[in-house]
């Protein structure tokens, strides 16, 4: 089976995986990421990244439906934003006073996001933060390691954030328990805590709302999304043929 589909199918429930690390030692650092029609195109051939992930989920309704159909298993939409898993993560991090490092967005955006988190989740121990514009990975990895962070939120866009997450994971021995890629979450939260209005979230119109808020999303919708549907079907058919040949 395609590595990316196998990861989606075999990943455990994201909340259970998170809860298993709270106030408990972990054997190794976990890198967790999310895929949608756009990032599928970026990650489908990044086998080293995919094999290094400890959890992979899909954060778009369209890809959740597509993957569910192709895999014959319900693959729910799971996203690191406040319409999904991020809300649970932040609430539990606040309750348990977890140590969190934020990485991504522009400097001024990230500072606003940190202020919003501190106002709404004052018990989260934000042990450090840094914008996502840097060339020296090793220096940032050292900054994260020295901070004592247990959890890292990494929002630098695919595949940059995924590559960095794996690189960071490979330097750790369990002090950092989990690394979550989070795309535009840190950027979006700089505007307000709940980026999506409730009616947008209820009607599953997040994609349309983002398109009007960030113009580059139109290209993704009209260029990359159709390409995704074409390629995923081709990849799945090829995968099935390879399985039949090897039987």
From TrEMBL:
GO terms of molecular function: hexosyltransferase activity
Which CDD domains does the protein's record reference? Answer: Glyco_transf_WecG_TagA
Please give the InterPro entries that the UniProt record associates with this protein: WecG_TagA_CpsF
Keyword annotations of the record: Glycosyltransferase, Transferase
Q: Which NCBIfam families match?
A: wecG_tagA_cpsF
Q: What is this protein called in UniProt?
A: WecB/TagA/CpsF family glycosyltransferase
| Species name | Pseudoalteromonas xiamenensis
């Amino acid at each position: 089976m395609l590595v990316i589909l196998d990861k989606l199918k075999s990943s455990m429930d994201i909340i259970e995986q998170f809860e298993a690390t709270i106030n408990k030692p972990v054997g190794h650092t976990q890198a967790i990421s999310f895929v949608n029609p756009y990032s599928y195109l970026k990650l489908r051939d990044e086998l080293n990244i995919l094999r290094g992930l400890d959890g992979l989920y899909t954060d778009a309704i369209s890809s959740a439906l597509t993957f569910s159909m192709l895999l014959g298993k319900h693959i729910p939409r799971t996203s690191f934003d406040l319409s999904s898993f991020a809300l649970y993560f932040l609430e539990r991090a606040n309750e348990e006073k977890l140590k969190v490092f934020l990485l991504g967005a522009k400097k001024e955006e990230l500072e606003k996001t940190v202020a919003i988190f501190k106002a709404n989740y004052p018990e989260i121990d934000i042990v450090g933060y840094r914008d996502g514009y840097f060339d020296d990975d090793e220096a940032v990895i050292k900054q994260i390691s020295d901070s004592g962070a247990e959890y890292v939120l990494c929002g630098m866009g695919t595949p940059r954030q995924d590559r960095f997450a794996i690189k960071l994971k490979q330097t750790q021995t369990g002090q950092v328990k989990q690394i979550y890629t989070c795309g535009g979450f840190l950027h979006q939260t700089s505007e307000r805590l709940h980026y999506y209005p409730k009616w947008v979230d209820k009607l599953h119109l997040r994609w349309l709302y983002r398109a009007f808020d960030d113009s580059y999303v139109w290209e993704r919708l009209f260029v990359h999304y159709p390409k995704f549907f074409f390629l995923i079907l081709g990849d799945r058919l090829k995968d099935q043929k390879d399985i039949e040949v090897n039987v």
